[in-house]
Each structure stands twice: as C-alpha cells, then as structure tokens.
Amino acid sequence: MDNLYKQQSLIFKYILYVVAVAFIVFFLPKGGKFKYEFQKGKPWQFENLYAPFDFSIQKTDAEIAKEKQIIENNQLPYYSYDEGIVEKVRESFDDEFESQWGNTELTRNQKSRLKYFAQVILDSVYAKGILQNNGKQVQRNFIYLVKGNEASKVRVSDFLKVSEINNLVSAILDDNNFSAFEKEIQALFFDIIEPNVSFDNNLTQKARAEALSKLSYTRGTVDQGRLIIAKGEVVEAENLKILESLKSEYESELWTANNYYFILIGYTVLVALVLIMLFLFLKKYRRTVYENNVKVTFIFFNILLMVFVTTMVIKYNDQLVFVVPLCILPLILKTFFDARLGLFVHVLTILILGFVVPNSFEYIFLQIITGIVTILTVSELYKRANLFVSVGQITLIYIIGYLAFHTIHEGDLSDIEWYTLGLFLLNGMITLFVQPLIYIYEKVFGLVSDVSLLELSDTNSKLLKELSNKAPGTFHHSLQVANLAEAAA
Description:
With about 500 residues, the chain is α+β, with helices and mostly antiparallel strands. Helices cover about 65% and strands about 5% of the residues. The strands form three sheets. It has a four-stranded mixed beta sheet. A two-stranded antiparallel ribbon has the order 1-8. Strand 4 and strand 5 (about 150-155) form a beta hairpin. Helix 12 runs parallel beside helix 14. The longest helix has 27 residues, at about 385-410. The radius of gyration is 38 Å and the shape is elongated.
C-alpha cells in the first residue's frame, strides 16, 4: 500500500498518457492515408506509378460548381395555370354583364353580339393566362406553363399584361362597330379580371433536383496497369487530377472492416510515440515540470484542446483550418514555462495534426514557422501593445508563407484566394484572446504566468520564479507577501 501511495504520481501520468492517446486517436479521421505525398508544380519523386486498379477520374470542385451553375442557368421555372380562377371570372362576367345591360335599350340581337365579342375578349385574355405581378419577377425569356397534367414551353412575352387589356378591348370593339361601349366593357374587365398564372416553387425545385441528380461527378476512367505518372515528371494539370482521384479512391477502399483494426493500431502507435517524446523531454530537461502533475496535466490539456478544435473545424469545413489559432499554444506555454518547452510542444501538436489536415506539408511548414516567430517575437505579454505587434507579425508570416506556396503551385500570384487571406486575419484576431485565457488558466490550474511576474519588480520576479520552480505549493503565499511589501513601499 505504501508503494502504491509513493507511485501515485507515476500512475497518474500513465493514466493521463493513455487517456490522451485514446482521445486523439478517437478524433483522427477514420480513413487510411495514401502512401505517396505530392504537390502541384513539384516533380514526382517516386518510381513510375501505374494504376493499381480501375478507378474513375473525379471532377474538381470548381468543375462541378461550374456544371451546376450551367444547369441552374438553363433550368426554366414552372408556372401553374389555375382553371378555377378562369371559371370564377367567367361566372362574374355573366352576372356583371346581365346586371349592366339587362335593362338597356339594346335589342336582343345587339346585346347578344356585344356579349359574344366581350366573351371573345375574355377568351383572348385567358388563352395563355395572366401572370401575377405582370411577370415582373420572371428572369427568363421562356417558362414552362402547366395546364392540367401537361407542361408546355411558352415565351413570357406572349402573356397578356393587365395594362394591355384595354387596348385589346378597343381593337375588338372597333372592328365590330361597338366602340360606343368601349369604356363600359373596359370597366367591366377591370373589375373582374384576376391573374391566374403563378410560380410553382415545388415543381420548379423538383425539376432542378432531378436535373442536378443527373450530374456526373466523374469524367472518364483509368484502367488497371496504365502509367499515371513517370519519375521526375511535374505534377500538374491532368496528372494532378488523376493522382487526386487515385488518392481519394485508395483511402476510401483502404478503410474497410478487414483492416480497420490494423489502421487503428497504426494511428495509436504514431500518436503514442509523439506523446512519449513529450514525457521524455520533460523528464530529461524539465524535471520540475515533470514532477508536478498539475503542470503536466495543463500541458496535455492544451494539446488535446488544439487537436479537438482543429478536428471539429475540419469535419465542418476543411477550408477553415487556418482559422484555428494554433499559435496560442506556444504563447501560453512560453508564458507559464519557457520558450523551448513551448516550441517543442507546438511542434509535437503540429505533427499529430498532420494526420488530419489537407495539404499536410504546407500546413506543417506554415505552423512551425509561425510557432518559431511566436517564440522569438513575444515578450512582456502583459503589455497590450506588445501583444498586438506580435499577433501582427504572426499574421504577416502566415500571409507571406501562403503567397510563397501559391506562387510555387500556380507559377504567379494570379487567382489568389482572398478568402484564405481573410482566414489568416481572423486567426490573428482570435489569437488576441490569449491574454484573458492566461488569466483564466491561472485561476483554474493555480499556475502563475510570466504576465503576473512581470507586473512585479525585477527583484521580486527573479525570486518568485525560483520559488515557483522549487516549491510550487508556497508560491502563491510568496506572491501575496511580495505584493504587500511592494504596496507598503
């Protein structure tokens, strides 16, 4: 029992280690990894690659988006012809006509002829129908008009507008010598005419969905044994598309029930190696940190937090990966411990995230460089101006690095994705929240950062820093004594 009590600190580290490995592996992407690394514009560094199996060439997101846009541009809207409104208008016409001309001096023959021509006008008005709002919302020259169970393609300009009814009335009555009744007939139609052709959103969306469902996401196939790319050949254009299709097909085929556990074991071993390096570093070079379980837990907590946030962002939208402010990790660790430990933990975290992120080489390079810049530039973090300058430098390195990679891939600075540059700026803005986060950590974990130490005099800072390393439990009491002494002075 005494031995168990003496070894409780070591047992806690074992448990923390196992939990951390399990947590990270759980959030890693459930898929295999393509065994070749390639980049656009770079030579193929491996032996000649032949197709290991038959697979389809996938269209790029830009090609698919373009084809979808073409389909939507060519998709005509559907409008429904309402027969019920027409019957209602006809009934109203009969009632209004009899009410208006039932007791006039017109002969039966004249009244019959006048009613006949008025009905001719009514039939002309509803031959195709009247569009709601005079068709102002129609953005096409043609539409599909649905009458009953049939849809026919009609020109929008063929529909009669409400403002044109008066002209139609005048023309027909003039041709038949009834122009004297023009204003009465116009007033009659003004009262009873209703639009009967309306936009059918449900049918339009169904037709759109059906058209999009016929869109092919692949173009052509690659037969097994075909040469995909030769050694030294530049990865670009068609070769790049074929390689990306092979990579996607390979990774989806690899993750099956038969080799699920083998891949899982592989991920576990790699993550375990990364974290064991952290323990070995702490044990050899940061003994005081290693022996303090609170500090070890604090370091692991921050690693797991960054892995968790990054994997969640990637699952939501991998294009937002650069929004995650990973430079907060070395900032915090340098503030609570030292620069060397902060950079070491930052690099190990980036290695773990290399399993998750797209374009892993580009991502790892940018994050390591910005981590180094973070360690080199940040000083006196409690001064807000210094923090703004440091975050500005970090953001600038992100942008410069991205533009350099873009130049390598595209050959020039055309077609820059301004959206990605905006993500770097957003990353910098989020990084500014590191200062309140440090104070939160001080309260939660009971640690004291350089921010608190630098707020004291240089003499007290050195003394308290030594006390924090030698006797962490008495540090807060020493800090209170120093603050009281300084206040009294």
